[in-house]
Automatic annotation (TrEMBL):
Function, in words: Cytochrome c oxidase is the component of the respiratory chain that catalyzes the reduction of oxygen to water. Subunits 1-3 form the functional core of the enzyme complex. CO I is the catalytic subunit of the enzyme. Electrons originating in cytochrome c are transferred via the copper A center of subunit 2 and heme A of subunit 1 to the bimetallic center formed by heme A3 and copper B.
UniProt KW Magnesium keyword: no
Subcellular locations according to the entry: Cell membrane; Membrane
Membrane topology field: Multi-pass membrane protein
Cellular component annotations (GO), alphabetically ordered: plasma membrane; respiratory chain complex IV
Pathway(s) this gene product operates in, as recorded in its UniProt entry: Energy metabolism; oxidative phosphorylation
EC number annotated for this UniProt entry: 7.1.1.9
Stretches assigned to coiled coil: none
Catalysed reaction equations from the record: 4 Fe(II)-[cytochrome c] + O2 + 8 H(+)(in) = 4 Fe(III)-[cytochrome c] + 2 H2O + 4 H(+)(out)
Name of the molecule in the record: Cytochrome c oxidase subunit 1
Positions of the Cytochrome oxidase subunit I profile domain: 20-524
Naturally occurring in which organism (per UniProt): Noviherbaspirillum autotrophicum
Enzyme class: translocase
Length: 524
């Protein structure tokens, strides 16, 4: 090292493939997560378009019903465990150390391991299509008795979900430890950016519920191969018990996929309204109360299983209650924009678009919370419309907003604003053309997971399929017209490209250097 300035760190990290395989730097790992999640997003999207191609007309067009249900099942699993969750973990890896003034994540090698568990799991899941009998066709919820009757593709999926769950738990431990132990001097918990708060709470949710999912699918596995009868009624088991265990994981899971989105939106709106976030403390408490309440609403997915009316009333009221803290957030965002000096660059467009479409998804969820209505709408396209408004128009729009907001910090280059806006308007229009008609299909009684339907549903299905292909093409445009050009170069980004943005991440140069905050900043 003689003669070399030890503060010059360009020499100390591996280059080429080793830099990525052995990555321990939080920025590199964040990038890996995002690349992985986008690949899975495209794969899940292709499955979605195959589903919509089949449903373009009544009658069977391309797939036998069992193959159709394989597509439906794998689309759900890939989008949830392969696209949405890893994308938010990628954002967490990139941004949390920058936002709290930490030099890196707490457990750098575990961080590497938790990422590299994902590609083998994704390969396993995808390869199940080519196994004897094909992929599992039990729905992404993997309900018995269907999941007990599937071929080896079901076992491959169970194994893949186990591996992805282990990855999530390690990522969550890392995030909690980093946030609680590595904040810069002066950065109290109540001074943290909202994105860090939402991820801290999300990480606790992950640690609480991923083992529950692992338990449910392990019991399924032993029912399949080791002679147990947890869910097999012929042996004295109860298939409804699986639903209770699964949804005890599954409902907090939907908040795992939306709370980090709330955090991203809570960073962007103050920046482009040029005001402080309205009611910061109430946002923190609302996030925590959403997380706590999410554990007592699981059986609203099960109103048709014949539970006693007392149970229906409890879960109905609990579900209505959880809409209160969610509403608090929407009011806080609107209040932040109120009388702000707003400009509408692409991140702000996606943030406002998020509030609009997420609110629609929230209201349809409130409608489904009402047990007598839910019993009518159960397993119809109304439910599909509801959760796609929350997850596509919610989680995905927030991820796009966060990408446009932070990509100058990641790459050192500004994206093309006109192309970003083109991507936004196409996404907003086509997401509504795709999913809004599903409300009407569901109310008219069209069941989900069917490859065929009566003729009266044709018109809305045609509209939905056209919207889906246009929305899919908009994301291909995003890849080739926005993402790849901004990685290659373009207009140089200043350290702080948005004049209303606040936070430690804007104090480091763009692109963020390989090592940041080796001397912790002091937060005033």
């Amino acid at each position: 090292m003689t003669g070399v300035d030890t503060h010059e760190h360009a020499h100390d990290h591996p280059h080429g493939w080793q830099r990525w395989l052995f990555a321990t730097n939080h920025k590199d790992i964040g990038t890996l997560y995002m690349v992985f999640s986008f690949v899975m997003f495209l794969m899940g999207g292709i499955l979605a378009l195959l589903i919509r191609a089949e449903l373009f007309q009544p009658g069977l067009q391309f797939f036998r019903p069992e193959v159709y249900n394989q597509l439906v099942t794998m689309h759900g699993l890939m989008m949830i465990f392969g696209a949405i969750m890893p994308a938010f973990v990628g954002f967490a890896n990139w941004m949390i150390p920058l936002q709290i003034g930490a030099s890196d994540m707490a457990f750098a090698r575990m961080n590497n391991f938790s990422f590299w568990l994902l590609p083998p799991a994704a390969i396993l899941m995808t390869a199940s299509f080519f196994s004897a009998g094909g992929a599992t066709a039990s729905g992404w919820t993997m309900y018995p008795p269907l999941s007990l009757q599937m071929g080896i593709g079901m076992d491959m999926t169970i194994f893949a979900v186990h591996i992805m769950g282990a990855s999530s738990i390690m990522g969550a431990i890392n995030i909690i430890t980093t946030i609680l132990n590595m904040r810069a001097p002066g950065m109290t918990l109540m001074k943290m950016p909202m994105f860090c708060w939402t991820w801290l709470i999300t990480a606790y949710l992950l640690i609480a519920v991923m083992p529950v999912l692992a338990g449910a699918i392990t019991m399924t596995l032993t029912d399949r191969h080791f002679g147990t009868s947890f869910f097999n009624a012929a042996g004295g088991g109860d298939p409804v018990m699986y639903q209770h265990i699964f949804w005890f994981f599954g409902h907090p899971e939907v908040y795992i996929m939306i709370l980090p989105a709330f955090g991203i939106i809570s960073q962007i709106i103050p920046a482009f309204a040029r005001k402080q976030l309205f009611g910061y403390a109430s946002m923190v408490y609302a996030t925590a109360s959403i997380a706590i309440l999410s554990f007592i609403v699981w059986a609203h997915h099960m109103f048709t299983t014949g539970m006693p009316v007392t149970g229906q009333l409890f879960f109905m009221y609990a579900t209505m209650l959880i809409s209160v803290p969610t509403g608090v957030k929407v009011f806080n965002w609107v209040a932040t924009m109120w009388k702000g000096a707003m400009t509408f660059e692409t991140p702000m467009l996606f943030a406002v678009g998020f509030i609009f479409v997420f609110t629609i998804g929230g209201f349809s969820g409130l409608i489904l919370a009402v047990a007598p209505i839910d019993i009518q709408a159960q397993d119809t396209y109304y439910v599909i419309a509801h959760f796609h408004y929350v997850l596509v128009a919610g989680s995905l729009f927030a991820l796009f907003a966060g990408f446009y907001y932070w990509v100058p910090k990641w790459t050192g280059f500004m994206y093309n604003e006109a192309r970003g806006k083109f991507h936004f308007w196409n996404s907003l229009i086509w997401v509504n053309v795709t999913f809004f008609p599903m409300h009407f299909l569901g109310l008219a009684g069209m069941p989900r997971r069917y490859a065929d339907y009566p003729t009266q549903f044709t018109d809305f299905n045609v509209v939905t399929s056209i919207g889906a292909f246009a929305f899919g093409l908009s994301q291909v445009y995003f890849l080739f017209a926005v993402v790849l050009p901004v990685i290659k170069g373009g207009e140089k980004a200043p350290a702080k490209p948005w004049d209303g943005a606040e936070g430690l991440e804007w104090t480091v140069p763009s692109p963020a250097p390989f090592h940041t905050f080796e001397v912790p900043p002091v937060v005033k």
